[in-house]
Write a structure and sequence with these properties.
Helix content: 25-40%
Number of helices: 13
Structural class: alpha/beta
Shape: globular
């Protein structure tokens, strides 16, 4: 028993050392709570144009008028007036890593962000609480006309593009948390890939909540013009605090004719974070969007990447993996709407539950009356690591065409004692045997990630499923 306890403590220490630490950073003064005065103050700090302020104020009224969701996970623990909606360190954004203030740089150095950028990415951005503190894009990409900056800068530098697309994929009326984000958003990534341009290396952003009791509300908008191609990878972490934090982001993707966007998330928030994110893509003729979504952290995670196939021949894929450890609720899945002829889609969801963890799959597949010759496949698999873990599956298919080809499958499995015994009889320690089974279960995801991210994801999952962290 002593050895087992020491192993768990060692794993917790390893997790905290890599992800759960915090830096003592000096912040600008800003009051808690949400009000019109707070929204106006955020806009004034950012020196925004009047049209963006008006979007914020309209969204605030929508937020206040909408009730809390009655479905899904229990969100009654959120106190909207006990959250900092803007926390900015007393530091300016830098485009050279050496110019980032030392206390903030230590955070991202520990997380391996600069090293990953040098090895794998054509551009990188780092957001610390409400502020983007580092942004850099490869000069070759700039020569091709690729824009990669934070959304705050884009509002002032590329106003026509932002006006054209901001809020068109996810309007503030969509849901309560979309309205909240629109009212108090800060940071996030803005990407525009010109017609026919293909980004040969991924673009990367890293989002970090550092301050206790803070909210993070980044706004990401990616536009791939006709025939363009881009891969974007984001990582998310936060320290371990007693007080809950709130992360409520919006991601809007626009794939024009023949364009391709791959959006990858490795979400590893600490277990005191409510992660409530709205993500949606509009895909035009012969375009393609892929969501690759890995959810390991957070207290409660509610996230359902959605794809609207709006042009003929458009295609989309959602690959979702969720790991629910002790005390976690992973409520995830995907939604795809076939709104044009000859469209194809795939939703693949895999979840792992342990102890008091609960994983829930919510899937929605819609085929419109005009979407002739649509093809779609939905697969949701769940793996239970012990007798306490729980999993739920809520698929919903709305098919309005008799010629649609739709397949759906679901499986729930449990690691058996016989399976573990067999592997141990071959000289594999029990802990490693469990980890190998879990990693084999989510192999679909790890195969499509860049090697560094794949290795890190495997490391995280092993920590989370064999000893418990948090």
């Amino acid at each position: 028993m002593v050895n087992e306890r020491e192993e768990v403590l060692q794993k917790n220490d390893e997790y905290r050392e890599r992800y759960g630490f915090s830096e003592k950073v000096e912040y600008h003064d800003f009051e808690k709570g949400l009000s019109e005065e707070v929204v106006r103050k955020i806009s004034k700090i950012k020196d925004e144009p009047e049209w963006m302020l008006q979007k914020r104020l309209t969204a605030l009224k929508i937020f206040e008028s909408k009730p809390m969701p009655k479905w899904g996970a229990d969100l009654s623990g959120i106190d909207f007036q006990d959250v900092y909606y803007y926390r900015s360190p007393k530091a300016l954004e830098a485009n050279k890593w050496e110019d980032v203030p030392a206390d903030i740089k230590r955070t991202f150095d520990k997380l391996g962000v600069p090293e990953a950028e040098q090895k794998f990415f054509a551009g990188a951005e780092a957001q610390f609480d409400s502020s983007v503190v580092y942004s850099h894009v490869n000069k070759e990409l700039e020569k091709q006309g690729i824009i990669f900056t934070d959304t705050d800068t884009a509002v002032k530098k590329y106003p026509e593009l932002v006006k054209k697309y901001f809020g068109t994929v996810i309007p503030s009326t969509d849901n309560k948390f979309a309205a909240l984000n629109t009212a108090c958003w800060s940071g996030g990534s803005f990407i525009y890939i010109p017609k026919g341009v293909k980004a040969t290396m991924p673009l990367n952003a890293y989002f970090r909540i550092n301050a206790e009791g803070s909210g993070q509300f980044e706004r990401t908008l990616i536009i791939a013009d006709e025939g363009a191609d881009v891969t974007y990878i984001e990582g998310c972490t936060a320290p371990i605090y007693a007080k809950n934090s709130l992360h409520s982001a919006i991601v809007e993707l626009v794939a024009l004719k023949g364009a391709h966007i791959r959006y990858v998330t490795i979400q590893n928030w600490s277990k005191n974070v409510y992660n409530l994110v709205t993500q949606r893509a509009h895909v035009q003729e012969n375009g393609r969007v892929e969501w690759i979504d890995a959810n390991i952290g957070s207290k409660i995670n509610m996230k359902y990447p959605s794809i609207y196939l709006m042009g003929k021949g458009a295609s989309g894929e959602v690959l979702s993996v969720a790991v629910a450890g002790d005390g976690q609720v992973q409520d995830s899945g995907g939604k795809i709407y076939h709104l044009a002829p000859n469209t194809t889609s795939k939703i693949i969801s895999k979840s792992v539950s342990k102890g008091s963890g609960v994983s829930t799959f919510r899937g929605l597949l819609h085929v419109a009356k005009n979407a002739e010759n649509s093809k779609a496949h939905v697969s949701c698999d769940a793996l239970l690591l012990d007798g306490l873990a729980k999993t739920n599956t809520y698929p919903y298919n709305q098919i309005n065409r008799s010629d649609a080809i739709i397949s759906h499958e679901a499986k729930i499995g449990k690691i058996s004692n016989e399976m573990i015994f067999y592997m141990m009889s071959r000289g594999i320690p029990e802990e490693d045997a469990v980890a190998m089974i879990v990693l084999g279960f989510i192999d679909d995801l790890t195969k499509v990630l860049p090697m560094e991210y794949s290795l890190e994801l495997k490391r995280l999952i092993k920590l989370d499923t064999t000893g418990g962290v948090g």
